Amino acid sequence: MINNKYQVILDNLLDISPNDSSIFTRVNDNFIDLYTLLRFDDFKKIVYNEKFEVSLLDGNLINIIENLKNCFNFSRLREILDTETNPYYKVSRINFNGDFQTEKQKIINFLEHIQQKSVLRWKILDNKVTNILDETNTWPLHIGFLFVSLRKEDKTIYAPLFFKEAEIRFKNAIPYLSSDGDVKLNEKVLFFLNNSGFNIHLNDNFKNFEIQKLIKQLKIDWENLFTLPTQVFDKFHSLKPNDINNENITFHPGTVLGIFQPWGGYSRNRMKEIINNNEMESILEVEFNKNVYKNKIQESIFRTDIGLFNVTKSNFSQDKAIISSLNQNTVIWGPPGTGKSQTIVNLITNILIYGYTVIVASQKKAALDVIKERLGSLSHFCLFLLSYKNVKKKSFYQPIREYLDLLENFDKIEQIKMTPVLKENELKYVRAVNNYLDTSYAKDFLNAYYYLFKHKANVDIQKDAEFIFSLPDISYPSSQLEPEKVAKAILKENNLRYLPFLKKYWTICKISKQIEKEYNHFNGSLYKLVSLFNQAKQTTGESNFQYSQNMLQNHNVDLNQEITDSEVIKQVIIERMFERINKFTPQQKQMYSEFSQSVRIQNLEPYRFVKKYAEMIKLIYPVIIATPDTDLSAWNKEEFDYAILDESSQIFIEKGLPILYLAKTKILAGDREQMRPSNWFGTRNTDDTIFGKVESLLDYAISLGVYQIILDKNYRANHASLMTFSSKYFYNSSLDVIDNADAIENQPIEVHQVDGVWENNHNKAEAEKAIDVLLKNIDNYKKIILLAFNAKQSDYLTNLIYSQHPGLEQAIYTKKLLIRNIENIQGDEADLVVATVAYDKNTKLNFAYVSRSGGKNALNVAISRAKEKMIVIKTIKASEVQIQPNSTEDLMLFKKWLSFLELDDEQRRELHKKVFIEKKNNHSENQSNTTWFKELVSSELQEAIKHKPSYELFKKYNIGSFDIDLVITKNQKPYKCILFDTLDYGTSDLENYAIKRDKYRFLKAKKYDVIVVTPLNWIELQNIITLWFNSETTTNNKDDYQPTNTYLINKTNIFISTTELDAPDAYDKISTANSDFESNYQESIQEEFVKKTHSNMTFISNLNKVYNEDLQSVMQTNTQIPQNENSEPKVAVIGNDPEAVSEELSNLTPIIVPKQDSSEILEEENNFWKAINIDLSPQSQKMFDSNAAEVLDNPEINPTTTKDTLDDLNGWILSDASDEELDVNSEQPLDSEYLDSVDQFTKTLETILGK
């Protein structure tokens, strides 16, 4: 006894509604009586041949035209036309008083025109067959024969018991009907008859029979059971349900070509099995605590010993979907263009490499075709059972034969490397640098190294720091050091230039030599460098300083994704299968031999082959690709490890559950905001049970609470504005949708308001406008979809194209142009979508598809197909859509969409901003600790493009659902894009890092030249940025300055304009964001400057402080320091740039004037010695020598060394006193003995002067 709540499922699987042509057949445009259409000779070919090809031109019309051509009088002409077979030309139209030949030719011309126009009928039918095949994955065109009728209570049938698959082909513009397929049973009719108490069993030995042979055999077999018509192959009789009253099976003549869906028995039988075993509720089991699902993902996704093997690029949400799917039942929610198919391909790849099995199914042929294409060479491991009842032998067996050849000729072993979501070095990096800027010492440490890397090449992070810290605590020049003059500059800075008799003098000489060697090409301020590092050391501490150095040395992390080579994966799986087959038992080996032989000779029809060799297929095929209608009776409950149902929002619940039943883990991919399931051949039964209310398998799974992961990045739309409406009204602004970097189209959505009329189920004005738009754009885009919001409008457009526009017709055949309606467009995409709404203000919209339940889903699909541009042609206005209290949500949303279309470009841009500003990153940065760094980078970039009008700097550059931190545009197009990663990953460090990395990859996929700037890699990047702007582009080509969409949106939000930069205080404004050290440094420079330039500055004369390490107030004297004759003291204009300050100081009049010639030098030096009361004139020289000799007599002083030192000093004082003669740059180091003697001499000199 079937539980009542499941009965509706079984009823819908039976699907025997009066609208189903396989249950009740009527002759119309889609169902043609071949007996009355074809010439008798052609009709006999169909009946008496297994394979045939006959012309579809009207046979009666051909006969009439041929008879007319052989007619020679009006009497015969009347006789030819006055027959039942001539509905084309009435005898009453003949002018019997006119010229016979003229009248005859006029009639022939008219009939030939009808014949020529009839070709259009077959083109339209063929197009419809193709669309249904794409939509349902089943071949729909068949010849039905041996019609059976029966009434069972309130249900009736009148349909063919048998079918023969047929195909329409065109040769030289003439349509032909061909077939080389089997004869098949109408499973729906047979099921109905058996459920009505008629136990009819037919074996399949008639599959290869000709139609006539089958009928002859049935007459023999059923002689005492059923009465068949005397003339089975006769004219079809059109009947209505009320005409059917027989309660016993009655057969009727007829041979009808039409669109039939004769299958459905497997799904119902499987569902009955599930219900009878009481297993319906256990197909999808769900945890109450959803944290269980989240934890499974978190436990796996960042483990480095668990890798993903992706053959196509993926983002973080896709990786999470794959990890979840491998571990638990999962709904992969894939909004339009978010990479659902590539996620499924990567999921299949991982299932393959980990040695599992999977059944993949979809109702959409296009979806499975995409999966097959993207799997590439891995499709060898997939057996495609796509309606194998209809598939041709060659296309079925060829890939199997290729697979067997690979297995049997395997000789190559490959090693494969897994790629975890986060690599080991990334994990270490994130854990090491997380929240680094929050430390109290980070800024000082980084500023020190920024300065070092900016002014010195070939930095050794550890060695350079050690050297800087080894420098003594003396004064260092603020200006840039000149090669070969380092010692001179430092001596000058310490007021020791003319005091070589001091120990400190020679210490500085030694240090200077080391500085010159290590910092030969250093172009910064040594004073600032030493100060920065000393400050960093003081605030950081030894252990933190070393820790920070290690981070700098290991800061480079590759953000790009590694893709696994599918060829390597293929070889690994082949090796695995090769080893499995080698271990076959003798019985399995025999089975394999028969299996492979059957493949090569193709002796069985595909469906028979699958049934016979199902066990071998299970052993060597890990992946089965099927449709919900595929007969999978050879597989049992949970025999597959995984089941993946793509486009599950379009699979009826009763069709999808039997697939899920076969697997342990279930994955449903789809989007509940897109199309619901559609029934091309009938209507559905409903009731108040869950199974009567819920249509799609996806809705059923979501209602149970199956864990969902949304794919959050749209890759399809080149313009974010194409997704503005869908993002806001269907996805709560949760999608990442951004403009391509090179997206120039300034009207991605173009609207044409026409004065059309909805009449006779079509809008002629809109159709003509759509054709005009197509003709103008057909050569401008690779692929175009012509979309009608109504199926009848779509038919009208198809008719128009086939009858009047051969160029567009050719585009349809080459798949460059697709004609779709709002009910069948899902799964398609195109560069350009041309949409015709068709309705006008008088249309009863409550009955329109877009206004019915599920209409909003169709609207969402329709408006999200375009990659580059959507052109909407409409008659109806938003104000003309009347909303009533009982109006559906679908109609209200349709009205909102019309309002959206009626916005002007500027209004649409503003809405675009408002919609995507709602999309926020939940992770907020600690602004107080990161602002200084961001401002530092932005000011450097601004300075780099100063006075280069081609470039502009934008801050928070909006490109759709998120902003880029800094963008430099070139000629009004994005050029260089900066993403800040300030290392603030927080408690969810790995996930936040992955999200930031994801943003980088997404921008790269959208063709942005993006650079991730961190406080660590800025040490190197700061020296590269100037190279980006070396050449200033000048062009007169206006196309080079055509702005992108994003430029126009952001132009009003420029961070720093060129005008602002030219203002006098511009640099001060930028510099205010510098570090605290900068401010302190400026103050110290000013103090030093004032100290050195005071006009009354005097030297301290007390030489007992000369050798004091403090080096303050070296000498005091009442003598003013002389200046150059033409020199005047300068006043420094202190700014915020330390380099500028250094330059200013270097231009000031020095304290001791640089030597111009020997006489000037001598005068200056005499003045110096006079300042310390030493007269070095010739008269006083003797006194000095005498005093020195007196000192030399002191036994405590080494006479030789001191004598030499005095001689050197005396020679230097009385000479030109050049650095070369002093030899401060000597390569030979100063030994300790010599320095000791200098120290002794200093003491002696103090004694002399003290006297």
Briefly say what this structure is.
The protein is 45% helix and 12% strand. The protein has 1251 residues and is an alpha/beta fold.
Share of helix, binned: 40-55%
Would you identify the CATH architecture of the largest domain?
A: 3-Layer(aba) Sandwich
Bulk shape? elongated
**What do we call the CATH topology of the largest domain?**
Rossmann fold
Fourth-level CATH superfamily of the largest domain: P-loop containing nucleotide triphosphate hydrolases
Poorly predicted tracts of residues: 1054-1162, 1171-1230
Count of alpha/pi helices: 49
**Spatial strand order of the main sheet:** 11-12-10-13-14-9-15
**Proportion of beta-strand residues:** 5-15%
Count of all domains? 5
Mean pLDDT rating = 81
Structural class: alpha/beta
Q: Characterize the main sheet.
A: 7 strands, parallel
Radius of gyration: 45 Å
Organism: Mycoplasmopsis mustelae
Protein name: Superfamily I DNA and/or RNA helicase
GO molecular function, one term: 5'-3' DNA helicase activity
Domain DNA2/NAM7 helicase helicase: 314-377
Structure explained in plain terms:
- The chain is of the alpha/beta class.
- It folds into 5 domains: 21-260, no CATH class; 311-419 and 565-710, P-loop containing nucleotide triphosphate hydrolases (Rossmann fold), CATH 3.40.50; 424-553, no CATH class; 720-912, Rossmann fold, CATH 3.40.50; 930-1030 and 1045-1051, Endonuclease, Chain A.
- Helices cover 45% and strands 12% of the residues.
- It contains 49 helices and 26 strands.
- A hairpin with a 2-residue loop joins strand 24 and strand 25.
- The longest helix has 37 residues, at 100-136.
- It is elongated, with a radius of gyration of 45 Å.
- GO terms for molecular function: 5'-3' DNA helicase activity; ATP binding; hydrolase activity.
